[in-house]
Each structure stands twice: as C-alpha cells, then as structure tokens.
Design goal:
69 residues, Alpha-Beta Plaits, globular, binds dioxo(di-mu-sulfide)dimolybdenum
Length: 69
C-alpha cells in the first residue's frame, strides 16, 4: 500500500477551510487520498509524495503545517 502521511495543520477554523485543504492536498502530484479532521487539525494523506513537500504546499495556501508521521 502507499505511504500514509499525517500533518498537524494550523489555522483551519471551519469546514470550508477543511474542504479547501483537502482539495489542495488531493491536487498534489502523487496524492491519492486526503482527509482532515477539523477538531484535531490533523490531515491524513495517502500517496507516493514527500511529506515535506505537502508542508510547503500548505504553507503556500496560508496554512502552516508540520509533519507528525
Ligand atoms: Mo474557514 Mo472561511 O476557517 O473564509 S474561515 S473557510
């Protein structure tokens, strides 16, 4: 199976933010699934992609993030 990455995302305060983050992550080359939990701020991403690249992408759309797994 493909790698699972988890990111702690800052700044998402509503469901709209979550949908935007999920859409952004799904648009990244190599990502096959992305979902985020609003309550915890944890985004889970499945795919052959570098987790540090995901952090850079989220930073670029205004959501600082850190790799937690
Ligand atoms: Mo969410 Mo709205 O946290 O502009 S605030 S999409």
């Amino acid at each position: 199976s493909q790698p699972l990455h988890q990111l702690q995302v800052q700044g998402a305060t509503c469901g709209g933010c979550v949908k935007s983050i999920e859409h952004t992550l799904k648009s990244v080359s190599g990502v096959s699934e992305a979902s985020m939990d609003l309550a915890t701020g944890v985004a889970s991403v499945v795919g052959a992609v570098d987790a540090d690249h995901l952090v850079e992408v989220l930073q670029g759309v205004g959501f600082p993030a850190a790799v937690i797994r």
